[in-house]
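Input.
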Amino acid sequence: MVLGGLMYTRPWAHDVFSILMIVAAVSAVYFTWKHSAWVTGHWLAMVPVTGVILGFMGWLWGYTLAYVTLWIAFIHFVITDLQSLRAGDAPGAET
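Output.
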């Protein structure tokens, strides 16, 4: 998230952010496939990677798309985790 913000002030941050996004996407797809845990929301998680690809192709707004959708995904995961905690679905919760 910090590197995404640095993209607007430091030119080198584009490349580092892009590499980290691609590594994260590849590892997410691998572990999701390995554990047969693919859900519809994972398709939405690929939008930041699409933005990075667009940025590499010369459309600089692609990096902004990647950064904004990464924040949306982060907020989504925080909200769903909080909902799970309130419902007592957290790992290790007493049942």
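The mean pLDDT is 81.
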